[in-house]
């Protein structure tokens, strides 16, 4: 990765290091994570991905280059079809489940970019969900080794998969290109969107460890 992506990746190093230290992520790596916490996470992730897919679709709608339209539209489709299969295999239907405060805030932030921001900010805002997951998944794979018998092997293998890594590289390539043809104020807003979404990635896993609920019944 180069240009804009290299810059924002380095700028969010502290946040990403904090993700690695979360007890939820450590428990995923060694398989010690309690099943109820993992199931809470999977339900919340399924709910989040519905909103994230809409954000990807909005990104496709705002793009003006055919390759970029195709990429974000395909990603929105895979978000629903491919990753939903992973969730259904672990927790079944999420019908009637309530999004957590953090999940609601993260989706609302992406929706605000779609409603009030430009294409560039939205592309930067949806990137961490690709890149942080690929980064965490690949390192979890290294730590876990042989996934045979690992209680969360299907999750790890999904995000450590080469096809997902290729999608991430493509998302970075597109975001670098967008930044390269944008003015300085737009690039500054892109930096902010990437940093904010990366922080939400940290908050999402932290919320899963705490099994976050709405105060007073939501």
Automatic annotation (TrEMBL):
CDD domains on file: TenA_C-like (cd19365)
Superkingdom of origin organism: Bacteria
Record domain Thiaminase-2/PQQC: where: 23-210
InterPro entries hit by this protein: Haem_Oase-like_multi-hlx, Thiaminase-2/PQQC, Thiamine_Salvage_TenA
Pathway: Cofactor biosynthesis; thiamine diphosphate biosynthesis
Entry-linked SUPFAM superfamilies: Heme oxygenase-like (SSF48613)
Name of the protein in its database record: TenA family protein
Species the sequence originates in: Nocardiopsis endophytica
């Amino acid at each position: 990765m180069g240009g804009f992506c290299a810059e924002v990746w380095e700028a969010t190093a502290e946040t990403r290091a904090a993700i690695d230290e979360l007890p939820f992520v450590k428990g995923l790596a060694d398989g010690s994570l309690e099943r109820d916490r993992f199931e809470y996470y999977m339900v919340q992730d399924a709910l989040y991905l519905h909103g994230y897919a809409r954000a990807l679709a909005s990104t496709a709608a705002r793009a003006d280059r055919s390759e970029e339209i195709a990429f974000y539209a395909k990603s929105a489709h895979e978000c629903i079809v491919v990753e939903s299969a992973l969730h259904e295999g672990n927790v079944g239907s999420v019908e009637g489940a309530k999004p957590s405060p953090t999940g609601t805030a993260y989706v609302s932030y992406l929706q605000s970019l779609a409603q009030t921001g430009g294409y560039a900010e939205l592309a930067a805002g949806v990137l961490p969900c690709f890149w942080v997951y690929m980064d965490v998944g690949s390192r979890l794979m290294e730590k876990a080794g042989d996934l045979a018998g690992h209680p969360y092997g299907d999750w790890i293998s999904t995000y450590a998969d080469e096809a997902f890594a290729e999608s991430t590289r493509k998302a970075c390539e597109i975001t670098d290109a967008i930044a390269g043809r944008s003015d300085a104020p737009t690039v500054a807003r892109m930096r902010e969107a990437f940093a904010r979404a990366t922080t939400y990635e940290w908050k999402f896993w932290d919320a899963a460890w705490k099994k976050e609920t709405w105060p007073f019944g939501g």
